[in-house]
């Protein structure tokens, strides 16, 4: 049985985990297990929003950049931060949603609606890191 990760156990009051998911489903499973280990565990709505955010960012990286080089999840007392690294320098673009469902366009606005803040940073090797934070 895994021990819950109390933020108080860490002198810098930060809990962090990293993985390299091959699918949005893998990323959701990773995020769900991360949230379950936090102490205190986030409210159900926060966990649901975390899963949506992780799923969307990872799916976008896989679709538009071809890969996710790393998924970082960090939590402190106030926030849960999601960082998705990918090999493409191209920034996500807001576009009109395709109401037929074939071309997407819903994800990036949803990321901005769920997150407290969103940032895109240059990544190692010419890629990028998309960061988004949720209130804990």
Q: Major beta sheet, specifics?
A: 5 strands, antiparallel
Per the CATH scheme, the topology name is Heat Shock Protein 90
Quantity of strands, as a count: 7
| Percent range for β-strand residues | 25-35%
Q: What sequence of helices (H) and strands (E) makes up the elements? A: EEHEHEEHEE
Return the CATH class. Answer: Alpha Beta
Question: CATH superfamily membership, which one?
Answer: Histidine kinase-like ATPase, C-terminal domain
In quaternary terms, these chains amount to single chain
User: Globular, elongated, flat, extended or rod-shaped: what is the shape?
Assistant: globular
Number of structurally distinct domains:
1
CA-based gyration radius? 15 Å
**Helical region count?**
3
List keywords for this structure.
136 residues, alpha+beta, two-stranded parallel sheet, 3 helices, 27% strand, globular, ATP-binding, protein serine/threonine kinase activity, serine/threonine-protein kinase, HATPase_dom
Walkthrough of the structure:
InterPro entries: Anti-sigma-factor_SerPK (IPR050267), HATPase_C_sf (IPR036890), HATPase_dom (IPR003594). Keywords: ATP-binding, Kinase, Nucleotide-binding, Serine/threonine-protein kinase, Transferase. The chain is an alpha+beta fold and 136 residues long. The chain has one domain (14-135): Heat Shock Protein 90 (2-Layer Sandwich). 32% of the residues lie in helices and 27% in strands. The chain contains three helices and seven strands, in the order ββαβαββαββ. The chain has helices at 24-37, 44-65, 107-114; strands spanning 5-6, 15-19, 38-39, 70-75, 79-86, 117-122, 128-135. A five-stranded antiparallel β-sheet has the order 2-4-5-7-6, covered by helices on one side. A two-stranded parallel sheet has the order 1-3. Strand 4 and strand 5 form a beta hairpin. Helix 1 (24-37) packs antiparallel against helix 2. The radius of gyration is 15 Å and the shape is globular. The two termini are 24 Å apart. The mean pLDDT is 86.
